Structures are given as C-alpha cells and as structure tokens.
Amino acid sequence: MKKSFLVIVALLMFIGTAGAQKIGYINTESILSEIPAYTAAQSQLEALSDKYKAQIETELGKIETLYQNYQASRNSMSASQRQNAENEIISKERVVQEKQRIYFGEDGIMAKKAEELLAPIRARVDKAIADVARMGGYDLVIDLAAVQGVVYKNEALDLTQFVLVKYNENL
Description:
171 residues, 73% helix, 6 helices
C-alpha cells in the first residue's frame, strides 16, 4: 500500500512538472495472457509445481503415519526406543523441509524453471513496450497491473494492443 501511494505521488509530481509530456498505459497481465508461449509456460510450471507438491504431501503422509504409530506404541517402548523413534520422525521432517526449500525456495528448482521459461518472454514484452513508447513519442508508460489505486484511465492512452502487435512482429 505504501509503495502504491509513493508511486502515485511520484506520478502526480511528474505529471505536474511534465507539462507537454506524453503518457500512456499498458496492462502486462492482459498482454501476457494473450501470448500462447506464456500461457504454455505457466501451465508447464503449474504441472511441475503440482508434481512437487504431491511428492511433499506423500512424504508428509508417511511421516504422519509414522508419528501415529509412534503415539500408539510409545508406552510399550523403552526410553531409547522412544528417543530413536522421535529422532527418526524429526529427521524425516527435516528432509521434507529441505526438499520444500529445494523445490520451492527462492533459488529452488521452481524459481529457476520459471526464470528459464518466462524471462525470455518478459524480455520480448519489455522490448515491445520500449519500441511502442519510442515510436509513439511517449515519455512515460504506466503498467496498470503493477499500480494499485488507479481510479480513472482514458482508453485513448491504452497502449496494450499496440504492444501485443509489436511483440508479435518481433517473433
């Protein structure tokens, strides 16, 4: 919220001092949803994520069963057996947590795969935006998908379709 407020204040200050500056807007969510390669990459990422989630859930289910078995037979175990069973459960939980980090962490498999699949598409979209802005003489292009709090927009300033056309020309 604070970031959006700062963006809006900065835009108002820029507009106030800009005078004859030309401004347009786009919606990157709309642009990306119209690009088949992007939607295919998103589907591929979703499938991969579902696969990893299923693996994690399976392992968590095994740990839960192990814990329930431990709870049921804990009273008949010696102190060392209880300690060994508890250590085994804790160890398996740590392994699952590590797998979650490997799959879904900031530098995990999913992040790397998303970067591999989506970065080239986003780079081409960014180039198309820059090309449209330069060709149209725009000094500022605002992404409505990134800015919250837009209460009015003049449809004549919407460059989204121009960016899509330019993107498709650059293929």
